[in-house]
Amino acid sequence: MEYVKFGVLLWFSWAQFISNAHSADSSQQPFPTEKLLVLTVATQETDGYRRFMQSADYFNYTVKVLGMGEEWKGGDVGRSIGGGQKVRLLKEAMEGLSDQEDLVVLFVDR
């Protein structure tokens, strides 16, 4: 009996989600890209970096690259714990943005 109650609850939750998603699509305005800042960390221009920047440019996103040209000191997370370089760079960047209350910051990592 508990499975039936759970199934009914799950079905109603899904129906509500679909209903909200459909109504939000028709009334929601596009997000202004000038209020969005994309942050990422890259120490060198790799192929993946260039593709990412090309995509960001296509969608007219403002991207701030942290750490470009610096030596990578973050470690190899695949083999050990990271060195915290990305976190340090992100923290420094966020401190400089603290006065912009309406800015949305999106941090992108690979």
Automatic annotation (TrEMBL):
GO terms for cellular component: endoplasmic reticulum. The keyword Nucleus does not apply. Residues 33-109 form the PLOD1-3-like GT domain. Pfam families: GT_PLOD. Keywords: Signal. InterPro entries: Collagen_mod_GT25 (IPR050757), GT_PLOD (IPR057589). Residues 1-23 form the signal peptide. It comes from the Eukaryota. The keyword Hydrolase does not apply. GO terms for molecular function: procollagen-lysine 5-dioxygenase activity. This is Procollagen-lysine,2-oxoglutarate 5-dioxygenase 2-like. It comes from Salmo trutta.
